[in-house]
Design a protein that fits this description.
Strand content: 15-25%
Largest sheet: 6 strands, antiparallel
Number of domains: 1
Strand order of the largest sheet: 3-5-4-6-8-7
Radius of gyration: 18 Å
């Protein structure tokens, strides 16, 4: 009986830790409190900070857009292709698809903007697990923190 109590306490502890480290959202879905956001739960308009990895990204540190941040999500969509085009092909596909959506969100064309594009896209492994999602985000080309939303900003 004691073993079950220990397991239940551990599970409860992990659940509380997970809930306390997840970004808080208001009724509209906007991030209002810092915390982790699962990469598959990013939404258009979500702001987040950089992470120190070039490996597969499973979560990012979400922050309210009113606070200084590194990136803002401006598009989330699934690709509709039959086969994985390889890492370079997927990177190129993601960049082109994000470019197509840039001006509609930021309010100016990419060449005139002070913002650059980054994207998250399926890896070969996640593709085999039916991941087809691409996430497009903007960041300041001079590596300055953004404050406020870039939507319609024209910067």
């Amino acid at each position: 009986m004691k073993n079950w109590a220990v397991y239940l306490a551990a599970i409860a502890g992990f659940a509380i830790y997970g809930a306390s480290t997840t970004a808080d959202r208001d009724e509209s879905g906007a991030i209002v409190g810092e915390g982790s956001i699962d990469a598959f739960n990013l939404r258009v308009g979500d702001c987040f900070n950089d992470i120190d990895t070039f490996d597969e990204v499973s979560s990012v540190p979400g922050v309210p857009c009113t606070e200084p941040h590194d990136n803002e999500t401006y598009a989330v969509f699934d690709v509709n292709i039959a086969d994985y085009p390889g890492d370079d092909g997927m990177s190129e596909l993601a960049f082109e698809a994000c470019m197509d959506r840039f001006e509609g969100y930021v309010g100016t064309d990419y060449e005139s903007s002070a913002l650059d594009i980054t994207s998250m896209f399926p890896s070969p492994q996640s593709w085999r697990e039916d991941d087809r999602e691409i996430v497009c985000a903007v960041y300041d080309m001079n590596a300055q923190k953004l404050t406020g939303s870039t939507k319609g900003s024209g910067i």
